[in-house]
Amino acid sequence: MTLDRAKTALVLVDVQKAFLEWEAGGMRRNNPHAVDNIARLLAAFRRAGMAVFHIRHASREAGSALAADKPGYRPIDAARERDGEPVLVKHVNSSFIGTDLEDRLRAAGITTVVICGITTNHCVETTTRMAGNLGFDARLVADACYTFDRTGHTGRHETAEDIHAMTLSNLDGEFATIETTDSLLAALDMGAAA
């Protein structure tokens, strides 16, 4: 599998410090190397001069760590934007609602979106589903996103690993192709050689 570098963009969803605060506060997550893998993807796209879009969530919920005036709104250092890389601010789960992401992608001739970020089963999943529904070739990078343990609607404890795996299973084939960082980087390398 190869990817056309001219038609592929990286979309980083909500790689923000609030999630580090949650973890520091005792919330348990999966994929301990996810941010490192996000940084690897970002570095590869930058080296290749490919399109990168940073999505930032600005919560309107009272007391949210993701509110625009809170420290948690800021990007995690490993995924901080550079000059010229657009930062699109959203207020809901989908990166396509209330932003001009779709318009920007189409104007740039992008047909494939590589998606990574936090959290797998919320904004990453919603963005991935919508990308697929809008006709983009969505590639979700499984080891470059993560989520947290949570209590389900029945009161049962659900692990981050199980939530992550089920989210990927729900998306795979129907809305997106599930990738790993290594498989995605290899596809980019093959695309450069083609």
Structure description:
By secondary structure, this protein is α/β, with parallel strands linked by helices. It has a single domain (5-193), classed as 3-Layer(aba) Sandwich (Rossmann fold), CATH 3.40.50. Helix content is 35%, strand content 21%. The protein is built from 6 helices and 8 strands, in the order βααββαβαβββαβα. The strands form 2 sheets. Strands 3-2-1-4-5-8 form a 6-stranded parallel β-sheet, with helices on both faces. Strands 6-7 form a two-stranded antiparallel ribbon. The longest helix has 14 residues, at 34-47. The mean pLDDT is 96.
Protein traits:
single chain, 6-stranded parallel sheet, 6 helices, alpha/beta, 194 residues
Layout of SSEs?
Elements: E1 8-13, H1 18-24, H2 34-47, E2 51-57, E3 87-90, H3 101-107, E4 112-118, H4 120-133, E5 137-146, E6 150-151, E7 157-158, H5 160-171, E8 177-179, H6 181-193
Parallel strand pairs: 1-2, 1-4, 2-3, 4-5, 5-8
Antiparallel strand pairs: 6-7
Helix pairs in contact: 4-5
